[in-house]
Inverse folding.
């Protein structure tokens, strides 16, 4: 960050550009501290930055064979796997859901899943402290019998 003038007039605003790099995976929201003097009394405000891990996704493309081979390997001892099942109150609106899935930051892989109503996505997160990268895959599936 570049330094700002030592005195700001009342009501003045200053903009700072922050470049963020993913060093390691995290669960707590990154924050930044702002220190200043007000009436010669030190003040400090901490702001949470809107940086969720998906901000660091690199889009990646793959075919169905590669996706499902990786998907099956997620259960191995050196990989992490997380499966979440959410109770839906109705059927998923595919046209409304598609831009939200794309907006998450991963590559939407179309025509990968045999069920055209499932969304399949892939991305890679590069982190400075790890020697490699973290492949990430998402697959949404409706259970229409419960809806």
């Amino acid at each position: 960050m570049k330094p700002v003038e030592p005195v700001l007039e009342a009501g003045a605003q200053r903009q700072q550009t922050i470049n963020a790099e993913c060093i390691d995976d995290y669960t707590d929201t990154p924050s930044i501290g702002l220190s200043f003097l007000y009436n010669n009394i030190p003040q400090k405000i901490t702001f949470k930055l809107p940086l969720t891990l998906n901000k660091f996704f690199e889009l990646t493309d793959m075919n169905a064979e590669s996706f499902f081979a990786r998907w099956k390997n997620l259960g191995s001892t050196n990989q992490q796997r997380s499966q979440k099942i959410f109770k839906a109150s109705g059927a998923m609106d595919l046209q409304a859901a598609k831009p939200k899935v794309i907006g998450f930051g991963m590559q939407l892989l179309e025509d990968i899943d045999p069920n055209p109503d499932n969304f399949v996505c892939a991305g890679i997160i590069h982190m400075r402290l790890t020697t490699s990268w973290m492949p990430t895959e998402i697959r949404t599936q409706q259970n229409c019998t419960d809806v």
Notes: The chain has a mean pLDDT of 82. The CA atoms of residues 31 and 47 lie 5 Å apart. Residues 64-73 form the longest helix (10 residues).
